[in-house]
């Protein structure tokens, strides 16, 4: 039985109830019940000294009390069952609300994970773009260095051809004009002055850096290609994970939305049932209150009738006692009159047998002798007032 419910509480108090703990302890008795039992015990103590009619009225009042107690017990049990159902509905509502909160929390966590994943994916794409830019920049520098090397080689070829042509021309002139040594010396000086600038250092000294540059380029290219492959693989892996996570989040969101929709419909249905239960409980409480008021009125009427019956019985008892006393008195008087009549009959027979003359004085004398031992009766007074009897021959 619930400890938080009283029989006459309002509808607002029912709506604000928390989920109670149910026990099997009996409910404490109210003040009205104790006063009723006190009044009944007082009535029983009064009725213990009464006769069968008062006992019958007591049985009728006890029957009415038992019927009212049965109605009240049935109403309380129904109210207890309805309140238990209401508290169960409230507990289910709390559980469903907790589940909805957990679903919303998981959805927020999924959204945060998605945002973090998108941020990480953007940072990786940016890093990949930077690496590609660095690769293109490195490849552009390598091409520029290749172009410079090609220009140097072409310049060396041109200078070597020019030197060979000049040498051939000098030899030819030397063969034609041997005696002109001075002129040849002047021509040599002229050729030296007209010749291009000194050639660059020997080619052997430049092959080492030129050979190391392609090797470095290949190594850098291989490194960048490895990094690009690795980043591409990571990007594909992250895209695959993103697709999987998105699909799982979509399916989870769909399931969560279905569950939330179902829970909301269930909550609405439970709210409707709660309102119906509250309305039913209110109607039952009102009906029970009316029944209790009617029972109280009937009890008051029965008490008034009982008081009236007690007064009537007391009056009848007093009247009966008076009548009994009067009857006893009349019986005594009748006995006295009968005794006097027997005495009178005896005197009359005796007088008739003796043949005495009976006049009023003689009759009074005989009666006085007959009733010398007893007091005068109303019959004697009546006979004394009556006219004289006729004289018997």
From TrEMBL:
InterPro entries: Kinesin-like_fam. Residues 171-209, 369-393 are annotated as: Disordered. GO terms for cellular component: cytoplasm; microtubule associated complex. Residues 369-382 have a biased composition (Low complexity). It is found in: Cytoplasm. Keywords: ATP-binding, Coiled coil, Cytoplasm, Nucleotide-binding. The keyword Thylakoid does not apply. GO terms for biological process: microtubule-based movement; mitotic spindle organization; spindle elongation. Residues 96-127, 253-312 form a coiled coil. One of its GO terms (molecular function) is ATP binding. Transmembrane segments: none annotated. It holds the Pfam family KIF21A_4th. PANTHER family: CHROMOSOME-ASSOCIATED KINESIN KIF4A-RELATED (PTHR47969). This is Uncharacterized protein.
